[in-house]
Amino acid sequence: MAKDTAVPNEVSAGQALWVEIRSPDGLIWAGTAKAITVPGVDGSMGVLPRHAALMSSLEVGRTRLRDAKSRGGADSRARFDLVSGDGFVEILDNKVLMLVDFADDTATIDVARARAARERAEARLRTPGEEIDRARAEAALGRAVVRLRYAGA
Amino acid sequence: MAKGTKELAARITGVKNIQKITRAMEMVATQKLKRLQGRAESAGPYSRKIQEMVARLSASVRDDLSPLLGKRELTRTMNLVVGADKGLCGSYNANLVRKVQEVVAGSGNEQVFHVLGSKGDRMLRAKGVPVEAAYEDVVEKLDFIRVRNITRGLVKSFLDGETDELRVVYTAFISAGRQRTATVRLLPIERDSLLETGEAAGQDDGAQEPGNADFIIEPDPESLLKDLLPKFLEMRVYSAILESLASEFTARRNAMKQATDAADDMINALTREYNRARQESITSELLEVSAGAEALK
Asked: Which residue out of A27, A60, A88, A102 would a mutagenesis test of the B interface target, given it has the greatest number of B Cβ atoms within 10 Å?
């Protein structure tokens, strides 16, 4: 694994945040940002540099990044939104670590695919099946629904 | 041709066919191992970070904030054994069975076993280990949702007081050349062991030492623990399965490599024997021909 603690100077100087978004499937996004809004359980939470140390549960919802610069520099959009799943956030020393079930860039959500996934999951839930298949279908349905809600927003 | 050579030729073909299978299995195991490593590398950092969060959070709260933290008097221990669904992987399953027998022998309280992997299940039952439940195909067709459901069931039995401890018996993947069976306690969660392993993971920079910052905790420590601890346990079980799978594939690859090499040796020996037999039959035929020619003179 690449050393992900190589944080730019502006972060230690308190001028920017270091953001890392991870799911069990891997790193989703890492880079710097001037501001981030995360979907906390008690409502949306805005975070700026020099934020107090904080830990919170996250709900499914919208995560917004402002003045963002991804680590690789490949993603040059300054502001973008993600739809993220249940998880947690930890803020410490200008570093924001999000651990979520999943996260998708709202701009790249494939609406047709999400819609197809929703229909497939609904069909599976209508027919009786094994418990494990139902659990999987429910999870798929939940994701498809939130993807569609935030798609292109 | 003499009788012996035909049989030898058939045996050589037979061994060659077996070798084809073992070689294919070796390659399949190698491929699966590669794919799995990608998965483990993806899940690893997430799992470590969650452990760090749990360590930091649990350092600043009291034990009674979560029923998963408090120690209890042991009467019944639940053991989740991560085995294999298939055999033909050298001593992988046998080592695991030995480890389980050690657990049974060294325990002072009742031990219950839940087993992942049908092969592991059969072998343990054959040895008289009391297996309460077995799950097939969880290991081979690894799926996070299924692991989560199983973990939830085990946590529930702990919360309901049916069991007082939860342990995982699995095969730790230390390096490509070294795997060994191990037991880890998952429940109750011990904060001391969390801090140690969190640091041992070595992914921390100095600023993130556990418990050195006063965290604002939202919505409140109790609710956060309620969300965080089950997730943490799910990841622990998932990682244990990932490691065991990597160990299993490594063991199978090595076993199949040995079998392929042994088949090579066998083919060589049989081919030598076949050539000798063939030469002998040619010599004796020649002798017969020349003896016949001699008789006609």
From this structure: A88
Residue-range domain boundaries for chain B: 3-26+255-296, 36-252
- Please judge whether B53 and A88 are an interchain contact, meaning their C-beta atoms are less than 8 angstroms apart: yes
What are phi and psi for residue A38, nearest 5 degrees? Answer: -120, 150
pLDDT grade, residue B115 (50/70/90)?
A: very high
Q: Is the dihedral of CA A92, A93, A95, A96 positive or negative?
A: positive
Tens of pLDDT along A18-38?
999 998 888 888 888 999 999
Euclidean distance between CA atoms A59 and A84, whole angstroms: 8
Does the B3-26+255-296 domain belong in CATH 1.10.287.80? yes
The CATH number given to whatever domain includes residue A51 is: 2.60.15.10
CB contact under 8 A, A57 and B43: no
- Cα–Cα dist B100/B92, whole Å: 13
Q: pTM, whole model, 2 decimals?
A: 0.81
B32 closest CA partner among B253, B238, B205: B253
Query: In this predicted complex, what is the ipTM?
Result: 0.78
Residue type, B32: K
In chain B, which residues have their Cβ closer than 8 Å to the Cβ of A99?
Answer: 46, 49-50, 53
Chain B CB within 8 Å of residue A88 CB: yes
Say yes or no: A115 and A133 in one domain. Answer: yes
